[in-house]
């Protein structure tokens, strides 16, 4: 019997945490074994509060929102470069840097670009911490139309 399900495009959602690196390591290894193309996605959230006060007497304008967004964009590019170097040297990797709610953007991208699987790490928060911050991995798995592989932390 032929299996109609093929995993030819894998989306790995990452941030700059050890949990994302664990997920990326696993995701790249899995993609190589099944012959899938890999894409990385990082979601920048709009900063809620930024220092716009500064000190004009000292010539410090403070950090304004466009500067924060530029810094986040550069950090995401460095994150992707580091992950490509560690896990996918020489491989063709698509990259997406988006702005918005993490779980919503990951799910939307996976649907729009027809990814076969999403791979995401989890911080494994428990109790009150989980109640306050929720779980992005849990939200992605609830709303995605494709399979989601959640890589637990190794702590």
TrEMBL record:
The record places domain UspA at 7-152
Q: Which InterPro entries match?
A: Rossmann-like_a/b/a_fold, Universal_stress_UspA, UspA
Coiled-coil residue spans: none
Recorded hits in Gene3D superfamilies, A to Z, give: HUPs
Q: Which domain of life is it from?
A: Bacteria
Q: Member of which family?
A: Belongs to the universal stress protein A family.
The protein's matches in PANTHER family, at most eight in alphabetical order, are given as: STRESS RESPONSE PROTEIN NHAX (PTHR46268), UNIVERSAL STRESS PROTEIN UP12 (PTHR46268:SF6)
List the protein's name: Universal stress protein UspA
Q: Which organism is it from?
A: Pelobium manganitolerans
